[in-house]
Amino acid sequence: MGVGHSSLSSCSVDSLCIIAFTAQPKTSSFSNSNRQKPLFPTKKHSPFAVLKIGTLNCARVAGEMEIGKGIAAAGKPIVDLHGIDDGLIQKIVYDALVWSSLHGLLVGDRNDQRSGKLPGVGMVHAPIALLPTSFPESHWKQACELAPIFNELIDRVSLDGKFLQDSLARTKKVDAFTSRLLDIHSKILEMNKKEEIRLGLHRSDYMLDEKTKLLLQIEFNTISSSFAGLGCLVTDLHRTLLDDYGEDLGLDSKRIPGNTATGQFAEALAKAWTEYNNPRAVAMIVVQTEERNMYDQHWLCTVLKERYNVRTIRKTLAEIDSEGQLLPDGTFLVGGQAVAVVYFRAGYAPTDYPSESEWRARLLMEQSSAIKCPSISYHLAGTKKIQQELAKPNVLEKFLESKEDIAKLRKCFAGLWSLVDSDITKKAIEKPELFVMKPQREGGGSIS
Amino acid sequence: MGVGHSSLSSCSVDSLCIIAFTAQPKTSSFSNSNRQKPLFPTKKHSPFAVLKIGTLNCARVAGEMEIGKGIAAAGKPIVDLHGIDDGLIQKIVYDALVWSSLHGLLVGDRNDQRSGKLPGVGMVHAPIALLPTSFPESHWKQACELAPIFNELIDRVSLDGKFLQDSLARTKKVDAFTSRLLDIHSKILEMNKKEEIRLGLHRSDYMLDEKTKLLLQIEFNTISSSFAGLGCLVTDLHRTLLDDYGEDLGLDSKRIPGNTATGQFAEALAKAWTEYNNPRAVAMIVVQTEERNMYDQHWLCTVLKERYNVRTIRKTLAEIDSEGQLLPDGTFLVGGQAVAVVYFRAGYAPTDYPSESEWRARLLMEQSSAIKCPSISYHLAGTKKIQQELAKPNVLEKFLESKEDIAKLRKCFAGLWSLVDSDITKKAIEKPELFVMKPQREGGGSIS
């Protein structure tokens, strides 16, 4: 467990206010091993996806989304809804619901048992913020600048097997899940297997600190970073609503920044697929047995097919165990089909591994030549414990050369402590409003 | 009641196989009274919307759609699904469901009580044919040619108040609903009120007769002709599926004809709105209290807003009764807002008028200067009884001059008999497989 320090008086832990930036995949996150062939520009400003758990009739779904790696956007709303005519708000809400329905801004409704297994049934509009939230342009640019540096850092950390094993040695003893991940990591190290092509689709979550006005990082997601698909649609929805009601609200749709996260994620997956260089191979999405955020994933697959003609298949870890086959040359077949890219939208939580079958599947994929997004190393590099290690003095310097980059990263580090630190634990018990307790693993949510 | 003769051995009454053509609005259906200013080209080939109640997991919904003025497409499928690998069919079905979800090809799920009242909740994919159905090009062109002639005919018939009253005099005695419509019609005749701008959004339903290879008309819908919105999407879906699987199926997506029904309906509504010439007025959709086919309507309103900046409001007949106000100059206000165009997606069935309130609303709108789509005259002109009258010798000649046009219409007339004809009733009892029994009113479905 890690305890994240929080002094955001405007955001309670319950409302889980986090700005979600879709990090831009870049050289370090998707590169060949000798780093001679950058596939993405470095340090380019990246667009971002903002999704807020709003006040629409979706409180229940919002809770569900958090479990499913949900995102919530921070800050004060641009408009104080209490000051607006109720009839106008109802009109905007109605239009937002219609727009979401017609444009695929959907999730499965957990009231419908089939909705997590089949597309096209039991659908409900995604939980959304009715209107965009203000965010300082300077901090937005800062977050965009940070994205490629974090990607570079994660890539370098992922290549240092000893650092990962050592840093997580203590966690290994108390956390059976991380322990199993580390076992796979050890086996890969023993094989002396190098991931020559590496792909990361990351999302860095920030809070704006009210007191210091600093952009503080909450966590960096290296596995199953969701909402690239739906987040873009939220941007489109907000633009449409402001085109229609902006005058009444005193808001200008042109001030909403662009959001091309879906396209960028698809582009990155397509580049990885191209690098793998087997035109008959597919991209495989590793999915949970029930997935109510499936339309976010389907958008990505749709763009991947339409723009790059890359076909995807969807398999659970159990299906991969039963249908998967590793050929001597490293080719990974599922149901007889070669897999170029494995994109994890499952496998980040202990519940994704109910039996040995799922662990076998994870190991098999890791041993193959398929490009894993993420590899076991990227997955481990994204744990809170590693985030905590990287925040210690002189650790960043081991992985990055540029002092400027290091300074930029440090500036966004919020305090991060382990529960074994008795002083800080005592302080947290005394003043719980200053802290956020986060689980070690992925999957969203906080511990209250 | 009318009995429609049917000799289609390939289509049983139960499966209700009807090809639905979206008739093109044209001069006669949308014209000023002196007919000097045609707003739509005459006799231009019109695209059509085909929607088939398919074999997807939607048998229940299909039933619902029939009640809600559903459409089903006829003919043999291009591909014999029994000959195709089951795995391939499952893939196509999955893709079709994903596509429908992401692109708004939706209806409300009647298992969800809220789904008929609120958008964005309890949604399910629309019932669709998985693949397009073959249809002879010559018959398609014939149907396109017929559309403007039928529009012209309906317009002329609508202007002959005496013909409508006389033809429906017998129906009036036995059908309370038609009787109420005729009462409104009489009041309007007494007022000597002329509809100077008339708008019709029609759909003509045909069957292909297997024995004679003739295109036979089943009915002509002048009120609440649905599926312009979803029908276009089905065309897009089929094109996408054939782009992906056409090679496996031996089908070419380029052979699917274009479908611009949504755009044409929106264009017609926008032209009517422009003719009304009050930039602050809205278009009003008259809706049922529960409407699970709402997304079909929302697509139309979305295009109307995006392309023509015409705002729409949605009101039930009861709401119109309580919020409506007729000004001395004929202006119709609802909730204080001037209404330029009234577009009926309700009001065609007796159940739409549970009390006197709804009838008051209908009369009030009819008395106003708002452009009704349809007017009471257009509504009555679309009844089966009028269709039957028009099929009698020398009746078409009263309304149309062109012998060529008259011949074209006659060619597509299927036999149509009233139940008062004892000979035909006897024949129908002896050979029920040769007949379809249709209700006098709108609302779809057959009587078995």
TrEMBL record, chains A, B:
<protein>
    <recommendedName>
        <fullName>Glutathione synthetase</fullName>
        <ecNumber>6.3.2.3</ecNumber>
    </recommendedName>
</protein>
<feature type="binding site">
    <location>
        <position position="384"/>
    </location>
    <ligand>
        <name>ATP</name>
    </ligand>
</feature>
<dbReference type="InterPro" id="IPR014709">
    <property type="entry name" value="Glutathione_synthase_C_euk"/>
</dbReference>
<dbReference type="GO" id="GO:0043295">
    <property type="term" value="F:glutathione binding"/>
</dbReference>
<feature type="binding site">
    <location>
        <position position="221"/>
    </location>
    <ligand>
        <name>Mg(2+)</name>
    </ligand>
</feature>
<dbReference type="InterPro" id="IPR014042">
    <property type="entry name" value="Glutathione_synthase_a-hlx"/>
</dbReference>
<keyword id="KW-0547">Nucleotide-binding</keyword>
<keyword id="KW-0436">Ligase</keyword>
<feature type="binding site">
    <location>
        <position position="219"/>
    </location>
    <ligand>
        <name>ATP</name>
    </ligand>
</feature>
<feature type="binding site">
    <location>
        <position position="297"/>
    </location>
    <ligand>
        <name>substrate</name>
    </ligand>
</feature>
<dbReference type="InterPro" id="IPR037013">
    <property type="entry name" value="GSH-S_sub-bd_sf"/>
</dbReference>
<comment type="similarity">
    <text>Belongs to the eukaryotic GSH synthase family.</text>
</comment>
<feature type="binding site">
    <location>
        <position position="219"/>
    </location>
    <ligand>
        <name>Mg(2+)</name>
    </ligand>
</feature>
<keyword id="KW-0479">Metal-binding</keyword>
<dbReference type="Pfam" id="PF03917">
    <property type="entry name" value="GSH_synth_ATP"/>
</dbReference>
<feature type="binding site">
    <location>
        <position position="203"/>
    </location>
    <ligand>
        <name>substrate</name>
    </ligand>
</feature>
<dbReference type="InterPro" id="IPR004887">
    <property type="entry name" value="GSH_synth_subst-bd"/>
</dbReference>
<feature type="binding site">
    <location>
        <position position="442"/>
    </location>
    <ligand>
        <name>Mg(2+)</name>
    </ligand>
</feature>
<comment type="pathway">
    <text>Sulfur metabolism; glutathione biosynthesis; glutathione from L-cysteine and L-glutamate: step 2/2.</text>
</comment>
<dbReference type="InterPro" id="IPR016185">
    <property type="entry name" value="PreATP-grasp_dom_sf"/>
</dbReference>
<keyword id="KW-0067">ATP-binding</keyword>
<keyword id="KW-0317">Glutathione biosynthesis</keyword>
<feature type="domain" description="Glutathione synthase substrate-binding">
    <location>
        <begin position="282"/>
        <end position="381"/>
    </location>
</feature>
<dbReference type="InterPro" id="IPR005615">
    <property type="entry name" value="Glutathione_synthase"/>
</dbReference>
<dbReference type="InterPro" id="IPR014049">
    <property type="entry name" value="Glutathione_synthase_N_euk"/>
</dbReference>
<dbReference type="Pfam" id="PF03199">
    <property type="entry name" value="GSH_synthase"/>
</dbReference>
<keyword id="KW-0460">Magnesium</keyword>
<dbReference type="GO" id="GO:0004363">
    <property type="term" value="F:glutathione synthase activity"/>
</dbReference>
<dbReference type="GO" id="GO:0005524">
    <property type="term" value="F:ATP binding"/>
</dbReference>
<dbReference type="GO" id="GO:0005829">
    <property type="term" value="C:cytosol"/>
</dbReference>
<dbReference type="GO" id="GO:0000287">
    <property type="term" value="F:magnesium ion binding"/>
</dbReference>
